[in-house]
Amino acid sequence: MTASKKLALALAIAASAFCAEAQASGPVVANSPYTVSVFAPPPAGLSNPDSITTANGNIYVVYANTTNADGTGGFSTIVEYSPTGKPLHQFSVLGKSDGLKYDPFDHKLWALRNEDSNPALTLIDPKTHVQTDYTYATAPAHGGGYDDVVFLNGDIFISASNPLPHDTVGQNNFPSIVKARLSHGQVFVTPVLEGNASLFDIAIGGKVVSLQSDPDSLKVDSAGDLVLDSQADGDLIFINGPGSPNQAALRLHLSNGTSKQLTVDDTVFPTTPSGTIYVVDTAGNTVYGVKSDAFQPGGAYSASDSDHILGKVDLSTGMVTPIVKGMMTPHGALFISAISDVSIFRSNDLSLAGGQTLDVTFKIERTGDVSKEIHVKYVVKDLASEKNDDQRFTGIVEIEPGKSEAEFRLPIATFGEIAEDGVTQEVTVILQPGEGYNVVKPATATIKLKDL
Asked: How far is CA 322 from CA 11, 32, 183, 353, in A?
């Protein structure tokens, strides 16, 4: 048999095996009141999709291709899709990119690379397409890599993945979550949650120690708590006040009602009843969209690679009920509201208006549906230093159709106030509920003149 015929036969066998495996998972079906459809297949030549995020109204999916989790060999590809699943742009990053998130504070995509070892980081500006690489200042204390990232209250939290076990049961005795900061091309980390930390068990009560053998995805829930998926252990770990002196952590062990351990790769927390959960099926090489008008705001929905499902989590007991079945290895998940989710951010932009008054800039950003014009209401609390100068007034900002953000300016102080009181003035803006949008955190932003 010639070499070309041998190659053709090998490819045919491989294709047959892949099809058999895909068929073994069964058709991908959703239980009412949910529907499921393909959002996007991979562009030609790309494979193994994993993490997913959203920025400026578009959706980004990272394809690991055939790269190794320790960074040896190959490139990953991040694809920018329109809301309808049309590929718009591709970014190439060295090694295996797993965690992918958009930072609304610095307006960059964070692509964490090499979750098993030799970790690195690439920041991508989704508008200019400029990429900036970072290395970690020190080798990971846990011996592995870094998997996922979350931006919360101005801090950056990263999950410490693939820890080296220190005993026969696989207990993680190293930090499972760290806080990160960037400086001069390097990432510096400090511990936030230890792998052997004492946790309060939500379902059974009392203190427990989770193995935390597989720290994976990070999210923020509706209460503003940091949530870690300890994938192989089937644990959701909720951290209130992460990194603060009053930090408290809770554990919810997940179950499918059998003796088989259910594992989860990612968990989302819908903000509105109507929307879409996008689920990345890595082995299936497909991104699915799960739509409904009956998502539970504040509820939890987990992608389980062991059970091949997207399931609704009972946050009291940990029981996971399938809403979509038949995927091969569901991994990354993302909730997009059917209406706009709006939040507010401060800026360091200071200007002189009318010759006597200093103005500062605030920015309102939205995710979810950006197709419609919305008018976002806000309340301004002017906390000037004079005793009886506490003023409140309202305003409205228009975000145009197709736009994901809008800026507005507010006066913070006059030269006369500065001369009298110094730079003690500050302005707080609080978003208000309104028609056609949903307010999410951060819903409040404060600018202090002394910090500008």
From this structure: 35, 11, 44, 57
From the list 113, 111, 95, 91, the residue with the least C-alpha distance to 103 is: 111
* 248 within domain boundaries: yes
Q: What total number of domains does the chain contain?
A: 2
pLDDT at residue 383 in the model: 58
Residue with tokens 């060295």: 94
| DSSP structure class, residue 261 | P
Distance from C-alpha of 215 to C-alpha of 20, rounded to nearest angstrom: 31
pLDDT the model gives residue 381: 83
Q: Which of 314, 337, 360 finishes a domain?
A: 337
CA atoms within 13 A on the CB side of 202: 19
Of the candidates 265, 318, 312, which has an alpha carbon nearest to the alpha carbon of residue 290? 312
314 and 441 part of one domain: no
Do 157 and 226 form a contact (C-beta atoms < 8 A)? yes
CA distances from 195 to 37, 127, 192, 225 (A): 38, 38, 10, 18
Q: Of the candidates 378, 369, 333, 390, which has an alpha carbon nearest to the alpha carbon of residue 49?
A: 333
Domain with 103, as residue range(s), is 26-337
Per-residue pLDDT at 17: 37
Does one domain contain both 48 and 133?
A: yes
Please, where are the H alpha helices in 410-451?
A: 415-421
Domain harbouring 71, CATH code: 2.130.10.10
| Domain-terminating residue out of 292, 311, 337 | 337
| Burial class, 207, CB count within 10 angstroms (exposed 0-12 / middle 13-18 / buried 19+) | exposed
Q: How many residues does the chain have?
A: 452
Distances (CA, A) of 82 to 40, 49, 369, 407, 436: 10, 17, 12, 23, 21
- pLDDT at site 398: 97
Residues 304, 333 within the same domain: yes
Interatomic CA distance for residues 115 and 152, integer angstroms: 21
Cα separation, 6 vs 449, in Å, equals 72
Distance of CA 204 to the CA centre of its chain: 29
Domain check: are 323 and 192 in the same one? yes
Residues of the chain where predicted confidence (pLDDT) is lower than 70: 1-26, 166, 353-355, 382-391
Are residues 321 and 233 both part of a single domain? yes
Predicted TM-score of the model (pTM): 0.88
